[in-house]
Design a protein that fits this description.
CATH class of the largest domain: Alpha Beta
Structural class: alpha/beta
Low-confidence stretches: none
Number of helices: 14
Shape: globular
Helix content: 40-55%
CATH architecture of the largest domain: Alpha-Beta Complex
CATH superfamily of the largest domain: 2-enoyl-CoA Hydratase, Chain A, domain 1
Number of strands: 8
Order of helices and strands: HHHHEEEHHEHHEHEEHHHEHH
Number of domains: 2
Radius of gyration: 21 Å
Largest sheet: 8 strands, mixed
CATH topology of the largest domain: 2-enoyl-CoA Hydratase, Chain A, domain 1
Strand content: 15-25%
């Protein structure tokens, strides 16, 4: 098994983990007490939480991008029963940056769609780090239509820096593909639930995230532009990315405070990459809870609530009808 990548602020955690691992070996050999091991493991959990709580927004971005975080494919395999993947956009193209299909979540039939970044160098090249071409968004549109046709809720897992920005993607209708997804999600006659599991970047994220309810993993980020892109545009200096991250307010806690999302899914101490199975269990529980609540609503109430929620976003203080208007 490959060694886990370590971010600078994680190094003290790794050092303590190594000490706990060494103590565990001694316990197994009968040279140390299990009580001491339990105490050190509890200390490790507290230390992990303490380090993560002190992170600034740019460090949170780094954590959201951690190469060892669970990906969409990990969550789908761990959360769903009877998952069947569907390929293609019905126009002759397949985009590996977007995956989706049919499955059951604790017995609830769902249509699932997710960005997939890939693990190996080869996979990341094929999937373009989760940046969809228009064909990927059209595959998602096909799956949304399938969900509506059979009355299944839509579950999307968002993890992308943004839609692929290449000339060829624009030439094949990138903006139109995103717009079509937004229109479809806005009027979809079945419940929809979206979870930002890592990066939620720009229109590429929105193409899967205009849902009845939007959740974020505790250490995910959600933003109209990357901190690097923002710094390059505003200050002509990508080195000011940390300053940009603070200004953009990219964290799950920021998004919840601004009313952009409805819930935060807690991650294991230190982040989802340190306990993949724990993260999968937490997300499965949250998705099951929210899907059950959405499925209990009538279609009329569902559409009315969706309309009110998105019409109520973006009010600026001082504008007519705003808080000071």
């Amino acid at each position: 098994m490959a060694a886990m990548a370590t971010l600078d602020f994680e190094k003290p955690i790794v050092e303590l983990e190594q000490k706990v691992a060494a103590l565990r070996v001694l316990v197994e050999a009968g040279h140390a007490s299990a009580r001491d091991l339990r105490r050190r493991e509890e200390e490790l959990d507290r230390f992990r939480r303490k380090v993560i709580q002190r992170l600034n927004r740019w460090q949170k971005v780094q954590l959201a991008r951690h190469m060892d975080r669970p990906h969409a494919v990990d969550y789908l395999q761990g959360m769903l029963e009877e998952f069947v993947e569907i390929h293609g956009d019905r126009m002759g193209h397949e985009d590996a940056a977007v995956m989706g299909g049919l499955g059951r979540l604790d017995g609830i039939p769902v249509v699932v769609i997710g960005h997939e970044k890939g693990r190996t160098i080869q996979q990341r090249g094929q999937r373009r780090f989760g940046m969809p071409h228009p064909e990927g968004n059209r595959k998602a549109l096909r799956l949304m239509s399938l969900a509506e046709r059979f009355g299944r809720p839509v579950l999307t897992l968002v993890d992308t820096p943004g839609a692929y920005p290449g000339v060829e993607a624009e030439a094949r209708g990138q903006a139109a593909a995103i717009a079509e997804n937004l229109m479809r999600l806005a009027t979809l006659k079945t419940p929809s639930l979206s979870v930002i599991i890592g990066e939620g970047g720009s229109g590429g994220a929105l193409a899967l995230a205009l849902a009845d309810r939007v959740l974020m993993m505790e250490h995910a980020v959600y933003s109209v532009i990357s901190p690097e892109g923002c710094a390059a545009i505003l200050w002509r200096d990508e080195g000011k990315k940390a300053q940009a991250a603070e200004a953009l307010r990219v964290t799950a806690q920021d998004a919840l405070a601004m009313g952009l999302i409805q819930d935060i899914v807690p991650e294991p101490p230190g982040g989802a990459h340190r306990d993949e199975q724990g993260a999968i269990r937490a997300l499965k529980e949250a998705c099951h809870l929210h899907l059950k609540e959405l499925l209990q609503m009538s279609l009329k109430d569902l559409l009315a609530q969706r309309y009110r929620r998105y019409r109520g976003m973006g009010v600026v203080e001082g504008e007519p009808g705003g808080e000071d208007g």
